[in-house]
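Margin note: ligand = CDM.
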Amino acid sequence: MSAPRTPVTVRVPAKVNVQLAVGAARPDGFHDLANVFLAVSLFDEVTATPADTLTVTCEGPDADKVPLDRTNLAARAAEILATRAGIEPAVHLHIAKNIPVAGGMAGGSADGAAALLACDTLWGLNTPLAELLDICAELGSDVPFSLVGGAALGTGRGELLTPVGAGTFHWVFAVADGGLSTPAVFREFDRLAEAAGTEIPEPQASPALLAALASGDADALAAVLANDLQPAALSLRPQLARTLAAGVDGGALAALVSGSGPTTAFLCRDAESAEKVAAALSASGTCRATRIASSPAPGATVLPS
Ligand SMILES: C[C@](O)(CO)[C@H](O)COP(=O)(O)OP(=O)(O)OC[C@H]1O[C@@H](n2ccc(N)nc2=O)[C@H](O)[C@@H]1O
Ligand SMILES: Nc1ncnc2c1ncn2[C@@H]1O[C@H](COP(=O)(O)OP(=O)(O)OP(=O)(O)O)[C@@H](O)[C@H]1O
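Resulting structure:
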């Protein structure tokens, strides 16, 4: 067990949920999900450097919206890992943030998973993957997927992962002004369901969606994309409907809210079409910025030093 003295940098992807089926609220406040995660090629990087105490810094266009105290998921990951190993979390964590903050793309979760892997490597712990995944689940429902990446079905509250097949797809993401709180979107989902008075069915992964995802057929996937949180996100942020429409008018095969939003995701036929959709979204004035990405992307990865 020898710990490298040089800094360790981990690259970690954002996610989009191509199916997000949400069940009724559980007694613990969480919702059971059938959550088909897809990692996309928008990345944060977390660098762990030996230090006297645990500190966090962040750079990037949204850096001012990222907490630098112990509530940062990267700091929490380092603390939990150090406590389990019986050592001090003597590390400086620097986050190069490219994933939209509070955007429904699991940016904080990504940094938690990246910091965990970076610290595990820096401290030479070689923690087994199953144990790393347990720590990820303790950090948040999306964090296990950020560690493994690719494409996976998440059940339970989203933390129990089964890998699924995925061909290549091209995406545009429209970044909105301001974020949406994930708990607030789930609460709005509950409120809308109660107002509608309908029974919420058990969440089930769609066989048609899994087949379309595996085939790499963008038209087939476009026909079955589904996010049960979308009505709740639109209820809290009605102007997102204009962004969704602008992307479809601009040539996207399909549009949906990414996870709990407010980032919107546009599935495109190919890389060339994605450029055109991004330009149309920018010209529409209905979003703050656009990002082009492809999927699937690898999970948290240590970069060569
Ligand atoms: C919307 C998604 O991003 C889809 O992947 C996730 O379900 C959210 O995952 P996350 O941000 O990691 O969420 P967590 O940190 O685990 O939980 C934050 C809050 O979101 C709500 N929450 C989250 C996950 C879940 N399956 N049911 C929930 O109701 C709960 O109010 C919870 O207190
Ligand atoms: N490393 C981090 N990066 C960004 N936000 C963080 C981080 N750590 C903690 N947070 C807090 O988490 C909140 C949600 O941020 P995040 O970017 O993870 O949202 P999200 O992408 O909507 O999450 P999800 O898709 O998992 O629901 C932020 O408003 C911030 O207060």
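The domain at 8-165+297-302 is CATH 3.30.230.10 (Ribosomal Protein S5; domain 2).
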